[in-house]
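Hey all, quick one. A colleague (J.T.) asked me to put the FE2/S2 (inorganic) cluster job into the tracker so the inputs and the structure tokens live in one place instead of scattered across chat threads. No bug as far as I know, just bookkeeping. Sequence used:
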Amino acid sequence: SSTDQVMVHFINQDGEKLTAIAKEGETLLEVVVNQNLAIDGFGACEGTLACSTCHLIFERDIFQKLDAISDEEMDMLDLAYGLTETSRLGCQVCIKKSMDGLTVQVPTEVSDVRRQLEVGKQS
Ligand code: FES
């Protein structure tokens, strides 16, 4: 039914607003992948908490209502570029009805932690 549909907007790296109809319970990563939204390099580790490319910046009022952050997410988020006070990882945040109309911002700089680790290994 249409009642479990939640409209979410993403502002991508180019400043374009991408709008998606999401379902309750989907993660923001799943929304991007399932709807093929044009966000470069997003979700490189497919939600396994290994990359931080799903870093999203939330509006403060919505951010405060999100479920508590896990230690694992916190550790990975710490490695993301352009971290803000309202940053979370999109693969760890599930859509709720109360998020209808949500706008999240993709940081202009994304870092794939796995790539940093590889670079570290080589040097
Ligand atoms: Fe890699 Fe979220 S998709 S940490």
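Adding what we noticed when we looked at it: The chain has a mean pLDDT of 91. The beta strands are 5-11, 17-23, 55-57, 87-89, 102-105.
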